[in-house]
Amino acid sequence: xxxxxxxxxxxxxxxxxxxxxxxxxxxxxxxxxxxxGSQLELHLSVKVTGGASSxxxxxxxxxCARFRGTDPLITGVTRRKLAEQVGHAKGPQSTIPxxxxxxxxxxxxxxxxxxxxxxxxxVSVGALGLQRPNAVVVADAHVDVAKTAAILEKAHYAxxxxxxATLIHQLAVPFLGLDGANATDARPDFAVVAPKxxxxxxxxxxxxxxxxxAKDYQxxxxxxxxxxxxxxxxxVALGAESATAWTKLxxxxxxxxxxxxxxxxxxxxxPTAVIENLTDHRxxxxxxxxxRAAEVAGFPAGVEGNLPTHLAHLQANYSPDSCPSCDxxxxxxxxxxxSADPADLLIELGVKPEVRAHAVGLIDGxxxxxxxxxxxxxxxxxxxxxxxxxxxQRRLDPIGQPGTVNVVLAKSDGAALGVYxxxxxxxxxxxxxxxxxxxxxDPDGEDTRxxxxxxxxxxxxKAITEQFKADADNPVPVHLVVPxxxxxxxxxxxxxxxxGKELSRLRWERDKHQGRPALTFNGEPAVVPPRLPEKDxxxxxxxxxxxxxxxxxxxxxxxxxxxxxxxxxxxxxxxVNSLRLDYLTPWADPSAPRIDHRxxxxxxxxxxxxxGAQLTPVRSNAIHESFTGDRPGLxxxxxxxxxxxxxxxxxxxxxxxxxxxxxxxxAEFELSKMQPAVxxxxxxxxxxxxxxLDLHASDLVRFSRTSRWWRxxxxxxxxxxxxxxxxxxxxxxxxxxxxxxxxxxxxxxxxARVVDDSPLTIEVDSRRIGDASRIVALHMNGEALVEADYVxxxxxxxxxxxxxxxxxxxxxxxxxxxxxxxxxHHDLGFAVGDELIVADFTWFSTNKGDVWLNVEKPSVDxxxxxKQTCTPDSYADDPANHQWxxxxxxxxxxxxxxxxxxxxxxxxLNPQVxxxxxxxxxxxxxxxxENLPDPADRPAEQPxxxxxxxxxx
Length: 953
Fold this sequence. Notes:
Blueprint lengths: L7 E2 L3 H10 L28 H11 L3 H5 L2 H4 L3 H7 L12 H15 L1 H14 L8 E5 L4 H18 L2 E5 L20 E6 L11 E8 L11 H20 L7 E3 L2 E7 L6 E7 L1 H19 L9 H6 L16 H10 L3 H8 L3 H7 L1 H4 L9 H12 L3 E2 L13 E8 L7 E10 L2 E2 L3 E4 L6 H25 L8 E4 L2 H29 L20 H15 L9 E3 H6 L2 E2 L10 H8 L8 H10 L10 H12 L11 H29 L6 H21 L12 H25 L1 H8 L7 E9 L2 E5 L9 E7 L2 E2 L8 E3 L3 E5 L3 E6 L6 E4 L12 E6 L11 E5 L17 H4 L1 H4 L6 H17 L43 H4 L1
Parallel strand pairs: 1-2, 2-3, 5-6, 5-7, 10-14, 14-15
Antiparallel strand pairs: 3-4, 4-5, 7-8, 9-16, 10-11, 11-12, 11-13, 17-18, 17-25, 18-24, 19-20, 19-23, 19-25, 21-22, 22-26, 23-24
Helix pairs in contact: 2-9, 2-10, 9-10, 17-19, 18-19, 18-30, 21-24, 23-24, 26-27
């Protein structure tokens, strides 16, 4: 019997000799489910299949006739080559960054490493309920069909005869439906051959082929995006279907219904296995292959002789959101941009098909304009006018105010949490400090991450101290302001990594006191990390506080500058372009000349710089080359001065755009009267967070590690937060309120018009708001009434009290349906023709009077958080009554350490237990003998020309 990591060796010579001299295997021709090769045989001279990535791309682009018509089986070339031939290649900015490619290759090599191959195999086999293998064998098929067939036969025999499991990497299997044809192959990264469960008589009568792929998907906030996993398993499914239909699969070997992805276990490259039932994925693959066969059959031979003409006759289903991953994107976009048809401009902008017919009149000025959402109307108007369209909303964000800390960073492609450099700027009561810039010579190292947390902890401590000096009883909250959500994700992930190490250290400290060795979850000697300093812990705890509450939209521990600006101004051009701050900012600047959205988009796309954390491929390659030099063995960075200059130039671009955006935000947009209310909600929450931090009470817990009962308790808080956010948005944003009032699914709002002023009579477009309803007017003629000079907002203990809002009961006139007399307590002097957005008063408050509008303040986490009366000694003095509020991590981890030690003594943990236990925490800690590769330790190799970032992400 082997442990979790034991037995990862090549086939022993005895097994090999016995197979060679005694075993004769007949090659079966039967089909074991799925599609038979003859059913989908494509009798074509050109068989460029595009591999597994093409099947995944087909799933997302299958509705596009141009995509289907440019299948390599039809054109004879990949879509990337085709785009180059017609003069519309996507350019260097769409290529795979060199370091990103090196990381992908390093991870694939790591999966084949003896140590990690054993873990991937045993986790996969154990999760599928199969027996523990007697040995784990590693074999290489060298991307050769014949060698793959031979190794499968040997692996099948080893599984049946000896109970071994074999990890085969670099397989080549005939593409589904093209077995025997001159076609490029499906190439699964690896597959596991394992013995089937023995019969009652103890006989093993066959083996399973478990198909897998290695994907170094980055874990962001400890999770891999579901969309990426889906994409990876679709690739696995194609390999599984191709293997199922292969006539040379050994008799007795069946393709398992489940597939496996080898992915990073945590933020490092250390791999683990994720198992998924492929039934639905394989069905989709079969459907796509059938569709593909039918599409190919519909085109005559010789298409490749005149590809430009062929391409021009294919109808594109263009979307600026989903099409950029297609190599034909630039061609299709250029085609739309050359068109004079107004409908094509709407397609270019990404307006939905069902809206285009109603919106054409916005462009041609002739066609009657139908029902079009304000967001679409403003987008079209901004595009035509060449200037941004303001929403009419005032600012709710804290950007530029004391207590905020601005952060930009330059991410390395060599690691999920790699950072080349960071710039930090704090806003104080006396003004804005200069940017503090740091460049790191070990961008992917642990020391760099700790240095980042130290810097953030220092600035947050200063900000908190300043706010307490200003008002010790009611300090305003502190915030981190970032240029995009990617930056926030990286910072939180760095904090989570540090928290996992600190919690592990506390456990191992207990082990040391008890005379036990420090072991990883899998039972290997561990590397004990250094203690997390208290000042650094402020940053870690603050970032994880944001992670735990990221579903609460009102919370603003981390503020996205781009999102804040986008809520105030609508840019021209496709909405997806506004996801870049350097594209969005010029549209908010009224002093800027008229903007050509296409020219600006091209300028931003071709820029070597990026505002967000992710670098452009051009800049990433330049920095990597200065880091590694032109040959192995050089010290890093190989060219220190150039390395430093490149990173500082990148950070300078980011800070310049950041400063410009903040300057425009402060100069052109006023603060809302409700902004202090939004900050007050954050202040209440941070008061609880500071108690967590002071008492070390669950302050190092990310969202995914919170208990089920805590999440259940948080449901009412989430509902209250969602309601408050909706109320704030609809009270302050006229455009959002108007669109919501026209949405039949929203009961609380309606559009109304003043039809008479004596008595005041309004017509309400609602079936739910009627006679005897109490309403409050939120907007009049596109202006938010809460922002009027005479309105005041007072903060009470549990709500916000708003004065001078028009509130009153409706009384049916009886003359016309939906017409009501209205006598609001505060009459603003309404005139006939005024357009109002009104809301059901009971949505806000149960108050009986019409003088004040009360907006309920969302509650804070009081059931699972330290109380005001909790002290550092509360838990030690009374554990029973304080275990759910202020129990410190030191106590929790000591108890957990003892639990793990007891389980290990009973043989319930890895490597003794079978099937292996999965570590759900997956803390970012390493075993003492774990030697992970460094993708940046050598000059980069160029990725294959036909691959794009979409193939590795």
